[in-house]
Amino acid sequence: MLAGILVLTGCATPPRVPPAELDRLWQQHRQTLQHKDDWALTARIAGSTEEDGWSGKLSWQQSGENYQIHFQAPFGQGAAQLLGGPERVEMRTSDEQVIIAEDAESLLYQQLGWRLPLKGLRYWVLGLPMPDTQSTDDEPLLVLDQAGHLSRLQQSHWQVKYEAYRRVGEVDLPQKIYLQNHALNLRLVIDHWRLNGQ
Fold first, then answer.
1. Cα–Cα distance between 58 and 50 in angstroms, integer?
2. If you ran DSSP here, which 8-state letter would residue 140 be given?
3. Order of strands across the sheet that contains 53-63
4. d(Cα 50, Cα 53) in Å, to the nearest integer?
């Protein structure tokens, strides 16, 4: 169970929690989160590429395989809404356009010029690796903090860093997340969480 998991330790200070205990805490935390398939969040988001930078507010509602994501740019610069499920995604823009596609990543790239990794982000915002990857080359690399939460994650050519967690009900959820790949940097500060039954 410890394969693929690295434990953060100081250079001269021994770990405060033994690796086996950290793995137990992580497995317990992971199992709790895997049952959270109905949730919502509101967040501030900022992104940058070599050519451009942007920021705004994000609200995301997930119910099983279906989601609604609303992005609002600052100073009235525009908004976009994604309504999606397993087989198609629909984008509605502030000028009342409706664009339909089979997957969100391609649609976002065609319309906005950048790829937001929604397939993985659905899990990464919860502090989980994306499950059921088909390739052994895509096995996640996990780094745990001393509480048994993800501190860093490498998966699907993305680096994900968790700067802070907050208590939501009976579980700790990410509050500040940084994501980076070869083309895009993202910063997500989550202001509010709602989980199943809340």
1. 22
2. P
3. 5-7, 141-144, 150-155, 158-168, 171-180, 185-194, 38-48, 53-63, 66-72, 79-84, 89-93, 98-101
4. 8
* 3-state secondary structure (DSSP) of residue 99: strand
Inter-CA distances, 175 with 23, 41, 166, 192, Å: 22, 10, 6, 9
Q: How far does Cα 178 stand from its chain's mean position?
A: 9
Chain centre to alpha carbon of residue 122: 5
Task: Give the span between the Cα atoms of 145 and 151, in whole angstroms.
Answer: 5
Instruction: For residue 26, give both structure tokens.
Output: 């992580």
Distance, first Cα to last Cα, the chain: 32
Residue among 32, 19, 7, 6 at smallest CA distance from 128: 32
* Alpha-carbon span 22 to 147, nearest angstrom: 7
The pLDDT profile of the chain, 198 residues, written as one tens digit per residue, is 444 555 444 444 555 789 899 999 999 999 999 888 899 999 999 988 888 888 899 999 999 999 999 988 765 567 889 999 888 899 998 888 899 988 888 888 887 777 777 889 999 999 999 987 665 566 899 999 999 999 999 999 999 999 999 999 889 999 999 999 998 899 999 999 999 766
Task: Indicate the pTM of the whole model.
Answer: 0.85
